[in-house]
Amino acid sequence: MGRSPCCDKDGLKKGPWTPEEDQKLLAFVELHGHGSWRALPAKAGLQRCGKSCRLRWTNYLRPDIKRGKFSMQEEQTIIQLHALLGNRWSAIATHLPKRTDNEIKNYWNTHLKKRLANMGIDPVTHKPKADALASAGGRQNKAANLSHMAQWESARLEAEARLAREAKIRGSAPPSSSSTSLGTPPRAAAPCLDVLRALESPTSTLSFSFASSEVTNNCSWQQLAAESSINGSLAVGFTGMTLIGNTERRSSPERCGDSENVAGGSGVEVEEDDGGTHEGEENRNYWSSILNLVNSSSPPNSSSPVF
DNA sequence: AAAGACACCAACCGCAAAGTT
DNA sequence: CAACTTTGCGGTTGGTGTCTT
C-alpha cells in the first residue's frame, strides 16, 4: 500500500485472513485471553504481527460484534456524535454497542459523508454549506461553545474509558469469559449520549450555558434545550439530521420507513435560507431527537458510573 | 459481453499516548 | 525521570464486487 510495511522484516504474513488463521486466533484468545498482543502470534502459531492480530480480533472476531446494515437510529447517533466529536471514532463507537470504530469510520466515509454532502451539509462542520461563510460573525461565540463542548466530551469519554478499563482489571473476569473481558473496548459503560449527562453535572464545565436552569429529568431537558443559549448555532449545524430525502443509490426502502420512529418523527429538513426564523423550532426538534435517541437507547437501569 | 467507473470494507500504516523498566 | 515497549487511534489504501456505459 505504498508505505513501507511493518511486518515484512520478520517475514510475517499480511493481507486478508484465512479461515484457518481466524480459527487459530479465536481459539487461542478464548482459551488464554490475548495477553500481550505482541507475544500472541508466536503462542498461537500465527505468522502475523501482534498489531494485525489485535485488529482482526477487535474488528471481526470478537463475539460481541454486530455486523450488517446500520439502522436509522444508529445512523442518527453517528451523525449527531460526529457533529459533536468530529472524527473521534472510538468515542463515537462507545455509544454504539457492538459496532467497531473501524466499521463506523467506514460507514461514515462511504455513506453518511456523501449523503450529508448531497443534502448541502458540510460533513466536517455539519453546517449547511451556504451558511459556512456567513457564520463568521456573531456566531463565533456559540461555535466556540460547541467546540468547548466537544473538547470536554472527548476528554470525559477518555476518562470514562480509562475508568472502565481499570474497573475491568480490578473486577478481573477469568480468561474463559472471553466475550466480556478480552480486548473489548470499554464501550458498554456509556450507552447514552453522555454530553447531556455532562451538561447535567453540577461540576461540568459545560453547565455555564444553563446555569439558571435546574434540571431534574428529561422533560426539563426539553425545556432547557428549547431555551438554551448555545443551541442557536447547534441547530443551524444540525439541520437535516433525520436524513429525509435520502439520495443514496442503494438506500433501502425499510430505512426510509424507519425514519418516523427515530427523532420523534420530527423530520427536520435542510433549510436553504438562514434567516433564523425557524431556528427555535429546529432547536426543539433537534434536541427532541437527541432526547428520544437517548431514551430509546438507554437500558432502564443504565446510568453512567461517572455521574 | 466487455471495459471502465464506482462502492464497499478489511487491513495496513504511522503516530501518539500509556505503560513498563 | 529518561528510554523503551506496547497499545490504541485515525487516516488511507487496495482488492473485490457491483453497476453503468
TrEMBL record:
UniProt keyword annotations, A-Z: DNA-binding, Nucleus, Repeat, Transcription, Transcription regulation
Region Disordered: start-end pairs: 167-187, 247-284
Segments forming domain Myb-like: 9-61, 62-112
CDD domains, sorted: SANT
Pfam family, one: Myb_DNA-binding
Gene Ontology terms, MF aspect: DNA binding
Cellular location(s): Nucleus
InterPro entries documented for this protein: Homeodomain-like_sf, Myb_dom, Myb_TF_plants, SANT/Myb
Biased composition (Basic and acidic residues): 247-258, 275-284
Principal subcellular localization: nucleus
Stretches with biased composition (Low complexity): 171-186
HTH myb-type domain residues: 9-61, 62-116
One of the record's GO cellular component terms: nucleus
Organism domain of life: Eukaryota
Protein name per UniProt: Transcription factor MYB39
Native organism: Apostasia shenzhenica
Record lineage: Eukaryota, Viridiplantae, Streptophyta, Embryophyta, Tracheophyta
